[in-house]
Model the fold of this input.
Amino acid sequence: MCGILGYSGSFSPERLTRANRLQSHRGPDDSGHFSDANIGLGHVRLSILDLTPLGHQPMASADGTVVLVFNGEIYNFRELRTELEAKGHHFRGHSDTEVLLQLYLSHGEAMLTRLNGIFAFALWDKRYQSLFIARDALGVKPLYFSETTQGVAFASEIKALLHLVPDARKLDIPSLHRYMSFLWCPGEGTPLRNVRKLLPGEAMVVRTGKIIRRWAWYQLPVFRGVKADLIEAVAVSGTVTGLRRAVQRQLVADVPVGAFLSGGLDSSAIVALAREQVPNIRCFTIEAKGGQDPGITDDLPYARRVAQHLGVPLDVVSIDSDRMVADIAGMVAQLDEPLADPAPLNVLYISRLAREQGIKVLLSGAGGDDLFTGYRRHVAVNYERYWQWLPQRVRSRLEQVTSGLDQRTPLFRRLAKLFNGASLAGDAQLANYFMWAKESQLLSLYTPEFRAQLGQEIASTPMLNFLKPLPESVPALERMLALEQRFFLPDHNLPYTDKMSMATGVEVRVPFLDLDLIEHAARIPLGMKQRGRIGKWVLKKAMEPYLPHDVICRPKSGFGAPLRRWMRHELRPLLDNFLSVESLKQRGLFEPEVVQRLIAANDSGRVDAAYTMLSLLSIEIWCRTYLDANEHR
Done:
């Protein structure tokens, strides 16, 4: 894993070095630059494969006409190398970077469909005076870009990109509305109007500082009409085989590899199969002192149970609320985006300990819920048929009644979440399951200027547009899994995992998102994924020979923190500072009096607004860091 950046156009080459340093945490082992007329490329290296100087980047072809900067891992690089050698290609080193370069020389842009891996890369081809930029199929590795009058610039992190394009600091109001609605921003938007994400499975070609072509090179299986036709025995055995193969591929490294182990099914499954290759694979988990919010299951006993069952070492990071609260502001700055979720801190603490123990690579269970189901919203969608037949006015009444229940009670809170948006139908209702606040409620928080710039923009538009090409015959749960894979993963879970692990110089790999496993999962009928209230049924059956029954059937738990308690106690000084009347008036985004009433209503339990308040807090912290602070200019 590494950090990349560059430009095409009339940019200052001197800025490339400084911008590269701003993301040096992504690659503490090496760095390099390349410039040629109006082209600049920068790279910081975290050495994982081929630790010798032969893996240095930017990497040029033998004749110097093609130059590559690459962030990620190509898991099938050995097979590709064998094919290329058979065609007469010669290699100097043993890195997947060199395989990627030679693959381009052999196949051009068509190389993308040959890759199984996680990546963001840029190739300068002097022969055609073109910059070819691409991002992996599921968007595991981030890539931001900005198109300005100077040209096009890109980087792995916004903080580095802004040094190349310091004038790109105008807020994007529709995107801020999405952060408020979902806690993260679905689609290509970021907090800044002139900074966008290259979407998962997308590529573009830049010439003379202009994007001349941008296209999607990958589509999820459901959009290709892949049929869910596997019988039960094949679905179960294929899940084990596919996950085992993915883990084996992702264990390949020239440095030690460890694993996250929360004690949940997904991370436990990864460790169970990884220990077949690395019997003493080192695992890491979190011990949260001070307790969880009501209704949240403690992970630590399950993590210890799995570690004992599999005979693997387990390192425990002990944290408390004081430590996490003190790190909230730094978390927002590191994330580049105001993602309102404390879970990234857990990734940071585990990655930091792993690096201290000499481990540069960690395997993660991310993606299991998004392929095989497992979230509460999947249960809700599965049970919609029991109440969707009710008249719309009755469903609206259900929504009103449940939203008025005491939100301090986990059951009432979940009922309110379940029936939030009950008056909606179709894809609009599916998108609504991802929302943490109603748009009507959020509008009351916004200043008139905010609302005027927002106009008629709807937060869920990227999701609804994404689902439009799907035939109506595609079931609701299948459509929701497509939303998980296309938005919830690459716009929320994967970015914070990448940013916080790379902040410590650690690479995180995600075997569940192996492309072959994704194709297999697409062929499993929905009834083998979500069976009544049982999520991930097929994965649970697949792991029965490997894991204890109580781990396989344990309650679902989030990878987070007792945020609701924090908002009433530990985080109150931060709220008083960043969300003070004076601060909010000066920023001009949110109505101070309405925000204060929201805080009071949350304190009393009339509403469950902890995450909405964290969104407000994160946006103000982000604004102070990226808009106000001179050191980022």
